[in-house]
Amino acid sequence: MQGWIRANKGFLLFLTLFGIFRTAVADWNPIPSSSMHPNLLEGDVVLVNRLAYNVKLPLTDIVLGHTGEPQRGDIVTFSSPQDGTRLIKRLIALPGDRVEMRDEQLIINGQPASYATLGDGSETVGAAGSLRTIQLRETMAAGTAAAHTIQLLPQVNARRNFAPVTVPPGQYLMLGDNRDNSADSRYIGMVPRALLIGRAVRVLASADIQGNWHPRTERFGMDLYGAR
Question: What is its EC number (predicted)?
C-alpha cells in the first residue's frame, strides 16, 4: 500500500485539492427536479459560488467567517433543515422581513409584489399527466429585488396562502420558482445561514435528460440573472 501511495502521490494530491476546491470555493449542482421551472430545467448543471456568503472549513459545513450577505432574489443552494438534502431555491425574504402569501401573491413588509402574465403552457406532473401552466413576471416591492419569472400550476393542490410570519435572525425564507410544485420553506421551514452552500451563478451545461440526452447548447453558459 505504501508503495502504491508513493507511486500515485501526484494523483492523490490532485484529488485532495480538487475536493477542497469543490467544498470551499466553487461547485456544480445538477438540477434533479422541476421545482425551479421555468428558469432551471432538469438536466441543467449550474455553477455555484461557495464563497458568496461564507468561508467554510474544507470538507465540512463549519463556517469560519462571512464573505457577503445573501440578497432577495438570489438563487441559493443549501442543505434542507428537514433532512439535509441539497436543495436549490430562490431566496425571497431576509432576517427581520415580515412576509405572507395571499392567493399566490407575495407581500413583504406590507408591500405586495406585482405580476405580469407572460403566457400559458403545459407540464407533465407525475401521475397527473399534462397540466396547464401559467408563467408570470414577479416583481417584488421596489428596492427589495429585481424581477424574475415564476410558474403556476392552477390544477395542483398547493399551499397558495400562508399567514404573516417574521423571518427569525440568521434565517431565510426560500421558495421555488415553480410555485405550485416545490418543497420549499412553506414545507421545510426557514433556512439557517449555516446551511447555505452558495449562490448559483450560471448554467455550465445542459442536456435533455427526459428525452434523448441531447445537449441543450443554447443554455450553456447562461447567466441566471441576465434576464432580470
Answer: 3.4.21.89
Contacts of residue 21, defined as CB under 8 A and 6 or more positions apart, other chains included, come to: none
For residue 6, pLDDT beyond 90? no
Annotation marks residue 182 as catalytic: no
Instruction: In whole angstroms, give the CA distance from residue 62 to residue 56.
Output: 5
Domain ranges in the chain?
1-223
- Across all residues in the chain, what is the average pLDDT? 87
Instruction: Report residue 126's pLDDT band, with 50, 70 and 90 as the boundaries.
Output: confident
| CATH number listed for the domain at residues 1-223 | 2.10.109.10
6 vs 50: which has the higher pLDDT:
50
Burial class (CB in 10 A: 0-12, 13-18, 19+), 180: buried
Catalytic: which of 35, 80, 182, 185? 35
Among residues 34, 89, 182, 206, the one annotated as catalytic is 89
Per the CB < 8 A criterion, the answer to whether 81 and 192 are in contact is yes
Q: Is 56 labeled as catalytic in the residue annotation? A: no
DSSP annotation of 160 reads -
* pLDDT at 5 exceeding the cut of 70: no
Q: How big is the chain, counted in residues?
A: 228
**pLDDT recorded at residue 64:** 85
Q: Give counts: helices (H), strands (E), the chain.
A: 3, 16
Which DSSP helix (H) or strand (E) runs through 130? strand 129-139
> Reduced to 3 states, what is the DSSP secondary structure of residue 126?
helix
Res. 228: pLDDT tops 70: no
φ and ψ at residue 9, rounded to 5 degrees: -65, -30
